[in-house]
Design goal:
This protein has 163 residues and is α+β, with helices and mostly antiparallel strands. The protein has helices spanning 12-32, 41-52, 112-126, 141-149; strands at residues 4-9, 62-70, 77-90, 93-103, 131-134. A 5-stranded mixed β-sheet has the order 1-2-3-4-5, sandwiched between helices. A hairpin with a 6-residue loop joins strand 2 (62-70) and strand 3 (77-90). The longest helix has 21 residues, at 12-32.
Length: 163
């Protein structure tokens, strides 16, 4: 993959699109994981957003960016997805926590997930973070692959079995 991903802060219109897509995706992931029912998922996802993004785009500890892809020549930038992480004070210093990342379908399979994770690391470091944490649903094999490839290790595992 030749090219570059840069993080560009979201504007209000981009935030609205992000929120709509992210809410739907999060609700769907929770349904697939068996955590929420189809009926309750939209409301519970909205409650989660209200808790983690109380001032939406203006939430002070939230960092919301568009993933902008530039080809090897760097002639043009294209919107390739988005990323959202929060930074909070942790035991060992500031910690970033990745809450959502999406590489649009038309950009999948081109190594952009790995490039986005590298861009996240650079930005989190620039903002003073000493660690990045994240949660991944067990059924999300593609994300697990990208995170492992990017150097993340499992720190906790929750399991269940249908009986």
């Amino acid at each position: 993959m030749s090219g570059l991903i840069t993080l560009v802060p979201m504007n209000a219109e981009q935030y609205d699109r992000f929120e709509q897509r992210s809410l739907a995706d999060y609700a769907d992931e929770k349904i697939q994981a068996g955590t929420w029912t189809v009926e309750e998922a939209p409301e519970r996802a909205a409650e989660s957003f209200a808790r983690y993004l109380p001032q939406r785009l203006d939430t002070s500890h939230a960092h919301l960016y568009m993933l902008m892809f530039s080809d090897a020549g760097g002639q043009s930038q294209e919107e390739a997805g988005y990323i959202w992480f929060n930074i909070t004070d942790g035991v060992q210093g500031k910690e970033a926590f990745l809450l959502d990342i999406l590489v649009y379908d038309s950009y999948q399979g081109r190594g952009l997930g790995t490039l986005a994770m590298e861009a996240l690391e650079q930005e989190a470091r620039r903002l003073g973070a000493v660690r990045i944490g994240l949660h991944v649903f067990g059924h999300n094999e593609r994300a697990l692959h990208v995170y492992r490839k990017s150097g993340y290790r499992i720190t906790d595992i929750q399991m269940s079995k249908e009986i």
